[in-house]
Amino acid sequence: MTATRRGRLAAGVALAGLALAGVTLFAVHQESARLDQELAAQVTLILERATPEEHQGHGHGFESRVVCAVEPFGMDPPDASSLVEVRRVYARHLCAIVGESRDWAMSVRASGPIAVRLGVPPRVEVPAAGPGYPERVRRLIPERYHDEAFAEFSDETAIDAARERFAHALDQR
Fold first, then answer.
1. Structural domain range at position 54
2. Nearest 5°: phi and psi at 72?
3. Strands across the sheet containing 88-97
4. Is the pTM of this model over 0.70?
5. How far apart are the first and last CA of the chain?
6. What is the pLDDT of residues 65-91, one digit of tens each?
7. CA distances from residue 149 to 16, 73, 111, 132, 162 in whole angstroms, order as listed
8. What stretch of H or E contains 90?
9. For residue 167, what is the enclosing H or E element?
10. How many domains does the chain have?
């Protein structure tokens, strides 16, 4: 085999390897995105179905329906690949109380990082507001997720969906 043919063969093998690596990375990204969507839906459901008493335990009280947006940024175990493997979810949340105002922008809202233990019953942990808040967040959220815990929502899709549910809930009143 000549050097030119070996070079072409090596280049072909290298290109095939790169293509396979790209397909694998795409599949892993798709699985991760799917799990994030499932976790967001699960935590949203937990928050929106919580009773007023349970919300009081989260640090805010009201007598009305709540609509929430959730964006997960971590989980335990960190290498879980399916919803049934996840024990805790770390997420950003934004919840609005329906009925306090007819305008989403003027509604009473709570937001920030939360930790949710999945299980029966689920347990939502919200760091209390006020002096010392950043330290309470750091105690609640594992160190590997601290940067994410203090970040803003990276995708407005969840907030847009919550805004739509808020408007729909007002129409149902």
1. 3-172
2. -65, 145
3. 66-76, 88-97, 109-117, 123-125
4. yes
5. 80
6. 899 999 999 999 999 999 999 999 999
7. 39, 8, 11, 15, 20
8. strand 88-97
9. helix 157-172
10. 1
